[in-house]
Design goal:
heterodimer, A: alpha/beta, 6-stranded mixed beta sheet, 4-stranded antiparallel beta sheet, 10 helices, B: mainly alpha, MetI-like fold, flat, binds adenosine-5'-triphosphate, binds magnesium ion
Chain lengths: 265, 262
């Protein structure tokens, strides 16, 4: 079977007048259709860079990105990229905000409008369609940002720490919501997070990156009895702590501490 | 209406009383100044031929209202100010968009814009008269030159401060730089554009008056310079008072627009 996403020997460096920053080095992995992948790693190790590369906002220095077997630049696959902050525009209503992508791509016709309204309805934002973003709670804003991404009907979803702006309690429930939305719609998704328990509670596999320049330290498959159970159920499962400790130990590996000292110079 | 606590009612009443006191004192200050001015002119403490007086100003206003000439002069100044204001606003937005669209151009022009912005524009007025003649064109160009460079620079800096993540958002939704401009920068800069308009209307008025001092036979600036040359100080003072009113009305107009947009 051809994987949904295939990344091979990917490297990327940023260039500024102050110097060169190697952000990612020799990254290779594949993602199958319908899989939910979590990426964890120390701050600044190149996680956001990885998503920017997959979404095509940046071009790799070396290596290749293939989607459904075709190179990214020729692929017709729709990629939805949900950024760290919601960036809802205050001068637009919630409905106008979630329709922004359709508006830009000139797809705002009756069926798509209908679809957006059904998404708002499904995720409890319908009564707020005409409200301003500032009238929404943090969790509602995050859901609006997800609907804005889903409105373009992406096949591949990239999520960059989508819950980091939320308080812990909202975070658990929004994470629960969003991961069930993604599972229901059978989307392929890559989630970046710095919360290890979040990674263990949602992912099919966890990709653990080293300090900058990010390399893959380990790809950890996660499976719970009963298949894709909800994040909240996973957190209460006996296997949860074992997975959590394993991710923690890989991240704490003495090697990575060593390269961290080198990197800080 | 929601039920209010005693403390809240007390607070609201205090605030309202304070507002009333402020309004009353403002009017009192105005009346006191007028009375002192009129009084010292009547008592001969100041020479009302040179310093004028409220009653002489009023008389002058009545006579110029009678022959309608005051409406002509005020209208001309107002029209020139509005024309140059619209030109400055349009040129400011267009210029800023152009500089944003081409970072190279922006960097090349930067020192020139900064220099032109800090140059005292009154120094240009005599040249403008020679180049453009003794007419309305000179006045409007003078007024535009006072405000336009600052306006371009302010708006361009506003555009440059846009959150790079918002630009990434547009790109991630498949948008181009044109979409960044129309969906993020322009709508996001509306408060900045309006506060810039408030500055511009004042600067345009300055430019128009400079222009009218030098190159006009109509307008409040002309009345002021003419009045001072023929020692009709009543006319000078009256023109300044009308100018104050024009300023206030124009500024309030933009404030109204601001509230409308919110
Ligand atoms: N535009 C840029 N120019 C230069 N260097 C950059 C740029 N963007 C990121 N970097 C550098 O590249 C490295 C990787 O950045 P990236 O944003 O991918 O990290 P991250 O893993 O997402 O971090 P975080 O967890 O803090 O979000 C960082 O060390 C950063 O300093
Ligand atoms: Mg990041």
């Amino acid at each position: 079977m051809i994987p949904k996403l295939e990344i091979r020997a990917l490297s990327y460096s940023y260039h500024t007048m102050a110097g060169e920053t190697a952000a990612l080095s020799n990254i290779s992995f594949t993602v199958d259709t319908g899989e939910f992948i979590a990426v964890v790693g120390p701050s600044g190790c190149g996680k956001s860079t990885l998503l920017s590369l997959i979404s095509g906002l940046l071009r790799p220095d070396t290596g290749s990105i293939r989607i459904d077997g075709t190179p990214l630049s020729e692929s017709a696959c729709r990629i939805g990229y949900m950024l760290q902050k919601d960036h809802l525009f205050e001068w637009r209503s919630v409905l106008q905000n979630v329709s922004l992508g359709l508006e830009i791509q000139k797809k705002l016709d009756a069926p798509h409008r209908e679809y957006v309204l059904s998404l708002l309805n499904a995720y409890g934002l319908f009564p707020f369609a005409q409200a301003r973003p500032s009238q929404l709670s943090g969790g509602m804003r995050q859901r609006a940002a997800l609907i804005r991404t889903l409105a373009l009907e992406p096949d591949l979803l990239l999520l960059d720490e989508p819950f980091s702006a939320l308080d812990y309690q909202t975070r658990l429930s929004v994470c629960d919501d969003i991961s069930s939305i993604i599972r229901e719609q059978k989307k392929t998704a890559i989630l970046i997070t710095h919360d290890l328990s979040e990674a263990v509670s949602v992912a099919d596999r966890i990709i653990i990156l080293s300090r900058r320049p990010g390399r893959i330290r380990k790809i950890l498959p996660v499976s719970f009895p009963g298949g894709a159970v909800s994040p909240l159920k996973r957190r209460n499962d006996a296997a949860f702590t074992a997975y959590f400790n394993e991710v923690w130990n890989v991240l704490q590996d003495p090697d990575s501490a060593l390269s961290a000292r080198g990197g800080a110079l | 209406m929601k039920q209010q606590t005693i403390a809240q009612q007390e607070y609201v009443r205090k605030q309202k009383r304070r507002q009333k006191t402020v309004a009353a004192l403002r009017i009192f200050l105005f009346a006191a100044l007028l009375a002192a001015w009129e009084g010292s002119a009547r008592l001969g403490l100041i020479d009302d031929f040179i310093f004028s007086s409220p009653s002489r100003v009023a008389a002058c206003l009545v006579s110029m209202t009678g022959d309608g000439s005051i409406f002509l002069h005020t209208g001309v100044t107002l029209a020139e100010t509005l024309a140059s204001f619209f030109l400055v606003t349009a040129a400011g937005i267009l210029g800023a968009v152009l500089l944003w669209a081409s970072p190279d151009l922006s960097e090349i022009l930067e020192p020139y814009l900064v220099m032109l912005n800090s140059l005292p524009k009154s120094a240009l007025a005599p040249i403008l008269i020679v180049w453009l003649g003794n007419n309305v064109k000179t006045i409007i160009v003078a007024a535009v030159s006072v405000a336009v460079f600052g306006s371009i620079l302010t708006l361009r800096n506003g555009f440059a401060c846009a959150d790079p993540d918002q630009i990434r958002l547009i790109a991630s939704l498949g948008g181009t730089r044109r979409h960044v401009l129309t969906k993020v920068l322009l709508p996001g800069s509306v408060p900045l554009i309006i506060s810039n308009m408030k500055v511009n209307i004042g600067l345009c008025l300055v430019g128009v008056i400079i222009g009218e001092f030098l190159a006009a036979d109509k307008g409040l600036g002309y009345l002021i310079i003419y009045g001072s040359q023929v020692f009709k100080m009543d006319m000078v003072v009256m023109s300044i008072v009308i100018l104050c009113l024009v300023c206030a009305v124009l500024y309030q107009g933009i404030a109204l627009l601001e509230r409308r947009i919110r």
